[in-house]
Amino acid sequence: MSEFLTLPGDLPAPADDGACAHLAGLPLPSMALPGTDGLNTDLSALPERSVLYIYPRTARPGVPMPEDWDLIPGARGCTPQSCAFRDHHAELRSAGARVFGLSVQNTTEQREAATRLHLPFPLLSDAGRALCSALRLPTFQAGGETLLRRVTLILQGGLVEHVFYPVFPPDRNASKVLAWLADHPEP
């Protein structure tokens, strides 16, 4: 499993294809997403600024990743990204932001990752792809599945306040979010 904790130096970087240009300022739909904390979270109703990092899928011990996973721009790096948000969690909370991860994996798979990686925040499941469809999030195909492209949203007052897309390298995403939050204090 340690091979998923670091990123190879030759990963292909994703290009900004404009697939998230519509998101800034978009209202969040009201829907309850199940989380690894056992709660359902409605992102549109969160009272505080939040960070939602969206990722394709986390690796599971003993389960191979889809064929050519490392060749798909932006696919590899979910575990290092989650660990970076874990490692910066206290700083993100001090900056006034809650943290959530989101993928289309089911809650059981996500709970295994959250426990194994000691994540102090919930991972939310969009297994039914309701949020994905409502926000028109970018996707890609791998291993016979439709997965979400990596994007990070800053949420405030039921709206998408800021968008990080493409996210690369994923293990630096949390520090970039922290820098943005420092430059954009809440009104």
**Largest sheet data:** 5 strands, mixed
Cα-atom radius of gyration = 15 Å
- State the end-to-end distance: 42 Å
| DSSP, total strands | 9
Which architecture does the CATH hierarchy give at level 2? Answer: 3-Layer(aba) Sandwich
Strand percentage, roughly? 15-25%
The chain-level structural class is alpha/beta
CATH-assigned homologous superfamily = Glutaredoxin
Oligomer: single chain
Strand order of the largest sheet: 5-4-3-8-9
Number of domains: 1
Percent range of helical residues: 10-25%
How would you state the average pLDDT, rounded? 94
Shape: globular
Q: What is the class in the CATH system?
A: Alpha Beta
Low-pLDDT parts are: none
CATH topology: Glutaredoxin
- One letter per element, helices H and strands E, the order comes to EEEHHEHEHEEEEH
Q: Specify the number of helices.
A: 5
